[in-house]
Amino acid sequence: MVLTINNLVKRRGTQEILSGITFEARPGRVTGFLGPNGAGKSSTLRILLGLDHATAGSALIHGKPFAELQHPLRTVGAALDGSGAHPMRTGQAHLRWIACAAGLPRSRVEEVLDIVGLTKAAGTRVKRYSLGMGRRLGIAAALLADPEILILDEPVNGLDPEGIRWIRTFLRKRAEAGNTVLLSSHLMGELAETVDDVVIIKQGRIVADGTLQEVTGSHSTLEDAFFALTSEQAGDAW
Amino acid sequence: MSVSSGRKTIRILRAELDKLMTLPWIWTAVTVTFLVHLLLTAAFTSASLQEGAAAPGILNTGLASMSYLQAGFIILGILAACSEYTGGQIRTTLTVIPWRGRQLFMKHLALTLITIPAAFILTASGVLYAGWRLDGHAAGVEPHEVIQALLGATGYLTLTTLLSAAIGALLRRTLPALVILLGYYFIISPWSRGLLPAYFPDTAGRYMYLLPSSGELNVLTPVQGAGILMIWSVSLVAVAIVVYRIRDA
């Protein structure tokens, strides 16, 4: 298995924000990690990417913690919230230092800027980017080394309808080429057409895990299934 | 494809240098510091000439603004460290370079490589200006004394920048780091002069560039001053790296 999250627990002070999270993401498939805001999606991804430490459990990539990967950028392309760039730096300069750190040629920077449609804004400071442009820059950074795994946190946030359509198609193509795609979102409707597998998290606990068909079950949409599952689990409707 | 540890380290250093060089705040800090330093040196030089001192010292006059000059380098160090925490850049840094200890060490090394020439050019320009304006009025100064003072001043400013970067890395926020460091260097330390022992970073470090004076009590030699300031800077960088490795980003 490419991404394996096993019994992950995270406590901050007295609060347990992740309680035994377990799921996997497989190659050739788009795995949607879905849940409402504050459910623990970003916390799980941050531990998977080595940004935060787990209180217990493990989050492994090819059986290793992220920090033990020989080529992190060639293995995993990650885009968390925002652009991940200093606002005073240009988009191009941001991608160039990343390319430098990963030993990639500068020409690759121009290629990914073209892929995400930021060529004209390459020399503009990131502080002048719209929310959608910032997301595109984050995705460009994730694509720099053409990684086999993509981990995207709320990728459609801030994107216009054209951008959402672009990312849906793009992610499907990545998965069809045999890559592993894990994306989180609180917008179930936006991603129902994109994902193959679904993991639903609420209040730090997994409430459903399976293929899109399995999780949707007898409900008409993934969104309906989500509300039904989470209200059953929590014993309340929200 | 396996990449040797040495090549990986060089790439990290180049990336950290690239980050610093493409951050406009770094150049603004250096440029403003340079201009303020020249203005202050010009003012101190004019004052020396107007006071009609029998033989004003070129080094004393050229380095008279060191206590103000250090503010620019403190800001430089803090900006270099805290810029990681602006715009969520730290997340990008750690997903590209997850080897935290090596990454933060290389950031300090990159900062050192930028600071040394900047500090030398700034201090040398002050001394050159004072030498030009005081030509014919100043007491003679030996070339080795000039070199020693300039190297000492460059070393002092570089170590102060590293110390500031370490504090910035620990606090992660620019404003608190600025308040603490500028508060110490410009309020606490000057007001408590004589009360603080000579082994505080600024009180010890100033012996690195001050020429020994026969009229004053020279508590430390330049080497002792450099050693004490280096211990402060290296210790704080080490603490910053340890904390960086164990805490959440």
From TrEMBL, chain B:
Keyword Transmembrane: yes
Keywords: Membrane, Transmembrane, Transmembrane helix
Stretch forming the signal peptide: none
Keyword Ubl conjugation: no
Positions of transmembrane segments: 21-47, 67-87, 108-129, 149-171, 178-200, 220-244
Tree of life domain: Bacteria
Organism (species): Paenibacillus silagei
Ranges in a coiled coil: none
Descriptive protein name: ABC transporter permease
